[in-house]
Amino acid sequence: MSEGQTNPGDPEENTEPMESEKKIRERNPITRPAAEGREQGSKPQQEGSGVVGMSVRDLNAYYGSFKAVSDVSMEIQANKVTAMIGPSGCGKSTYIRCLNRMHEVISGAYAEGEVTLGDQDIYAKDADPVIIRRRVGMVFQKPNPFSKSIYDNVVWGAKINGFRGDTDELVERSLKQAALWDEVKDRLKESGYSLSGGQQQRLCIARTLAVEPEVILMDEPASALDPVSTQKIEDTMDDLKKSYTVVIVTHNMQQAARISDFTGFFYIENQGDPGRLWEFDETEKMFSNPDRKETEDYVTGRFG
Question: Is 12 domain-assigned?
Fold first, then answer.
């Protein structure tokens, strides 16, 4: 696929929900093939901390009749950072949205295949997408703080999910985990909009952490930030993997090499084809000795 090509229907930008959670649960268009006779393969390792990984088997994602992602299988290890790289329009953002069922929020979008979070199949008929999204949080490409105070931004998600504990402690802990506490501890009643772009993105990370997810998805979280803010986001991710499983989409090859433990390269051979997981391995190998020529060409900057 040549530089600059994109697939229709694959939104690389932040996509806001178009339907209510209630409607999603009522419609629930997600289907999954029968698992009988399927080789399950090894499950992601479970660290002593209780953090879970995810297992993806034969995942296909659609926007109506258009197939955006085809036949992806991947083991996402617990307490690791897994990076998704590849040219624009090859399905990276679509793929990670399938990991917490955000993909189906787009009207007409659906997925097929099996995605397990620990031992739970998130596409099983009895799986509640609202609970899945609580367990698998997401930070979008563009910071999207609410028109509330910094304090209320952090506690909002936890409160609507029934949190009844000490909100002061929750705010401090979440902001510290997001490496923002020292910068805002005396400004908690100010609007989240008063923060810089990098601070707003870390506020969104703190808001995600306050719900206490098990997995954190990040869709190009530093793409619109300056180098100093980008470094702080990267430092935050390095700390977060001690307590969470982290999956990130990035177009920055140096960033993927610096922060990730595993890397998946998505690629499209011909315009109009669905995106595929072309190669997946430990990051060091992917950047030093990949198995496929297309991977080598991409990570060395020959295209993309």
Answer: no
